[in-house]
Amino acid sequence: MKILSWNVRGLGRPSKRHLVKDFIFSSRADVVCLQESKLQDLHTSTWRSIGGSRLNTFDFLPALGTSGGIIIAWDSSQVLGTLIHKGTYSLSIKFSNLDNNLI
């Protein structure tokens, strides 16, 4: 299982979303964690413009004002993600690898 974690420092601009999408695609990560998205809301169509279609499941913690924002996304054909805790400043998800049932 490949995991990518990145402090993206904002995803408001389309050019930044394109840069992030290209890097996610080239990394071939199964799980992606993006911090400091600075997004107040995240719809599926917006996520696809950032993460593509392979990372088809995600959870999201909105930014507070102009700081914060967490996105955790994964490829549901490779890993099973279960939300454990969603706090004011944290998002915890338990992952199980579907290939060999590793946690």
TrEMBL record:
Q: Does the keyword Hydrolase apply?
A: yes
Q: What is its EC number?
A: 3.1.11.2
Q: Out of the domains of life, which is the source?
A: Eukaryota
Keywords noted in UniProt: Hydrolase
Q: Looking at the keywords, is Hydrolase present?
A: yes
Please state what class of enzyme this protein is: hydrolase
Report what the protein is called.
Exodeoxyribonuclease III protein
- Report the source organism: Dioscorea alata (Purple yam)
Lineage start = Eukaryota, Viridiplantae, Streptophyta, Embryophyta, Tracheophyta
